[in-house]
Input
Amino acid sequence: MRQKLTRVLGGVAALALAVGGTAACKSDSGNEASGGECGYKIAFFGALTGPDAGLGINENNGVKLALDKYNKENKDCQVTLLQLDSQGSPDQAPQLAQQAIDDAKVLGIVGPAFSGESEAANPLFSEAGLVHITASATRPSLSGQGWKTFFRSVGNDNAQGPAAAKYIKEELKAEKVFVIDDQSAYGAGLADEVKKALGAAVVDTDKVQGGGKQTEFSGTVTKVKASGATAVFYGGYYAEGGLIRKALTNAGVKATMIGADGMKDPAFIDGASKAAAEGTIFTCPCLPASEVKGTFPADYKAMFNVDPGTYSDNAFDAANILLSGIKAGKTTRADLLAYVKGYTGEGVVGSYKFTDTGELDPSAVQIWAYKVENGAIVPVKRVPLT
Output
């Protein structure tokens, strides 16, 4: 997990226009495909099962929608999806990365979704020259490793961490903050950014185990109570976050809980209970549905019978960037990588242009605060970055 947009209507249509719209998909021989299956693939890499699968399913559905639209508009050259279920585990990431690398028809990847699995898989992708765009891995250090194939369609935690701290200080007026993290690449990195921005307001810290390894948090609750904190920040994912909130409430701790994009999922409310979850704050470099352009929200709901989840739209845009390159005839890994490096265009989230390290242009990053109200996650406000 997980880190002013110029908006225009049109998801896939706008991306296609950005590359000329009429470019033909080529076969391996360099000739235009005669129709139907070209054999090209893009992959989704992330958790589709396991305790943190909600985020991965959101993103995978966004990729599926992009492919569905693309294939309907390009019936002479269909692109298929390879789904790589990491369960959010860095331990599984290398073998899944190698699976994608070994499949010569895989031209690009949306993912990895989590920061820990990114650290494990990205060196392999870089060595193989296989371009990948993550919609949610927000640990800042991912872009400082010299990986040549890494790109983000989302802002990183250098923006989200300080924004969360800003909300805690200016909106919650909290003078005593307890910070917890799950020791993951995402959670620990995000917590570090929050602690740095809060400074002396952090009265104590603790670490727990993520990934479904811990379900009992009485020790952490005792520390929070003793600290006198009026706000608790958790760097981690919704599975443990919900249980921590429930345990705090059961112990009579009324401190406001704040999490980030990894906690922003309806499953947090299920884990905490509706009553305990009430009032919890999430920050996220993701947009409310009302801010997403085009027909994406309606199209997503029509296809999956649910509203888009966190980062469904960022994954949709990431997939469309890859697909627009394929449509433009960039059907070798080297050509598609070069295409993404130089890409400038519009998606349903906003403008896309990547820095030399694969980051989304900082001018395109927004952080929003969300709140649990009456059993639902609702947007509160955009948090200024300065």
Observations:
- The longest strand covers residues 37-46.
- Residues 1-35 have pLDDT under 50 and may be disordered.
- The first helix runs from residue 11 to 18.
- Residues 249 and 275 are 9 Å apart (CA to CA).
